[in-house]
Backbone:
């Protein structure tokens, strides 16, 4: 099995199977660390945007709100939310992500998905579920790999399921993935709000929540999704742990500021670990719930989840920050005009996944992509490309994705797998006296180096 996958992956990577090279973007990505525990005046806006008015009147009426509530309102409020209204990805937007930088990224994830599907014994149904698909570029690159490897997928029935809260982005995804072959779903479609079909006839469905996606063997992909989920912030004080809240500045009534809750809150008594050593902690409870749902689905229905994001393994403290026009932006200033994000705490996700599911990683993006064969793929693309500017673009996007000083070490890959995936295969029946070593579990692509033997 291992040899089969390795050979297939090698053929795939060296065949030069994707044409043409998608133009890549050369702009800054979200990366700069910051400490933004203070507010600054809005950038020249005279009139407070409506989300600020909404938040200030709410806080004036009922008191300071948790950072998680602030983040959720600002990003995903159904009317005014940043993700709901904007197309923020790309050179003209606020930040850029790996799938937008290079098609190779999505291609290698496509190879990963097929390898996990093979590792699970090639089930007849394959649901590809993407959480927060942005412009749909990652899914589009993955589907291209699927159509190139149709012979490997055989008779498997493949469907694409997108969990997207933003109507604006879901339209972009539909355009990118189905052209004009998508339509708004009617009431009879239950939780599906849009349906469509790719050019190759593969069904695509859109949902607002993971819970709404049908059960069944699924590979889940979440790229830069968890960092957009609301975090709670906690500060260690002389009196114990206190939640950080967002309040209206009493001296400037249209500005916000952070305050520390005077006494413990439900969140500060339930979300922190007794042995916590840091003085400031961020907890993404919503991310924890989503990981629990993923783990339960994987254990019950089979499959795997690949979570890729910038993050840490439980050591960082204050990572909450804003991005606007590829620059850092004060998180409390002009809410709704900038992206808000926090590093993903993979140690927390691992804890929330529980013992039923197997976890691998996090490994850095550089390690993951190199293990997946990005160097081989680059060589093939460069060999087949004579245009100097396209070659330069390929080289600089490769550098952006893998350079340790750029995205290579800031971004990490983490995976949840069905426990059987890492179990040692049974020893072959035979003479009891024979001293054979137990066969090793199948390697998980990306997390262990692929050997092209
Ligand atoms: N994965 C894409 C986009 C990352 S931006 C890429 O890497 O290019 C975050 C994405 O998650 C956007 O599509 C945003 O609309 C979506 N999103 C944010 N919060 C969400 C939520 N609570 N539920 C569903 N989608 C969400």
Residues:
């Amino acid at each position: 099995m291992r040899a089969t996958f390795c050979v297939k992956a090698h053929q795939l990577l060296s065949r030069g199977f994707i044409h043409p090279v998608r133009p890549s973007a050369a702009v800054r990505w979200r990366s700069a660390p910051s400490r933004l525990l203070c507010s600054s005046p809005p950038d020249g806006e005279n009139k407070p945007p409506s989300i600020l008015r909404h938040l200030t009147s709410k806080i004036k009426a009922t008191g300071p709100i948790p950072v998680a509530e602030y983040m959720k309102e600002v990003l995903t409020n159904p009317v005014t939310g940043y993700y709901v209204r904007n197309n923020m990805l790309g050179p003209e937007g606020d930040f850029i992500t790996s799938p937008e930088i290079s098609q190779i990224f999505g291609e290698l994830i496509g190879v990963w998905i097929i390898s996990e599907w093979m590792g699970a014994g090639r089930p007849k149904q394959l649901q590809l579920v993407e959480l927060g698909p942005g412009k749909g570029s990652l899914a589009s690159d993955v589907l291209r790999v699927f159509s190139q490897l149709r012979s490997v997928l055989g008779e498997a029935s493949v469907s694409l399921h997108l969990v997207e809260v933003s109507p604006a982005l879901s339209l972009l995804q539909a355009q990118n993935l189905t052209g004009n072959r998508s339509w708004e779903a009617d009431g009879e479609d239950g939780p599906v709000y849009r349906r469509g079909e790719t050019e190759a006839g593969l069904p695509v469905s859109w949902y607002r929540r993971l819970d709404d996606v049908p059960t069944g063997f699924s590979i889940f992909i979440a790229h830069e999704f968890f960092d957009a989920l609301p975090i709670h912030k906690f500060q260690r004080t002389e009196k114990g742990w206190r939640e950080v809240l967002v309040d209206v500045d009493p001296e400037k009534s249209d500005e916000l500021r952070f305050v520390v809750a005077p006494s413990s809150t439900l969140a500060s008594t339930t979300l922190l670990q007794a042995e916590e050593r840091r003085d400031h902690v961020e907890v993404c409870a919503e991310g924890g719930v989503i990981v629990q749902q993923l783990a339960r689905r994987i254990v019950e229905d089979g499959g795997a989840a690949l979570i890729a994001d910038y993050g840490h393994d439980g050591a960082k403290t204050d990572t909450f920050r804003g991005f606007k026009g590829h620059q850092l932006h004060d998180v409390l200033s002009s809410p709704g005009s900038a992206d808000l994000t926090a590093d993903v705490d993979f140690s927390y996700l691992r804890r929330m996944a529980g013992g039923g599911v197997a976890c691998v990683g996090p490994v850095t993006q550089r390690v993951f992509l190199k293990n997946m064969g990005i160097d081989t793929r680059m060589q093939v693309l460069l060999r087949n490309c004579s245009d100097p500017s396209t070659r330069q673009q390929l080289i600089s996007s490769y550098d952006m994705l893998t350079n340790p000083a750029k995205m290579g070490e800031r971004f990490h890959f983490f995976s949840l797998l069905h426990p059987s995936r890492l179990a040692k295969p049974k020893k072959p029946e035979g003479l009891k006296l024979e001293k054979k070593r137990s066969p090793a579990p199948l390697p998980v692509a990306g997390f262990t180096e692929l050997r092209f033997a």
Notes: The pocket of S-adenosyl-L-homocysteine is lined by residues 76, 83, 89, 97, 99-100, 132-134, 138, 163-166, 169, 223-225, 228 (CB under 6 Å). The chain has a mean pLDDT of 87. The first strand starts at residue 65 and ends at 66. The two ends are 12 Å apart (CA to CA).
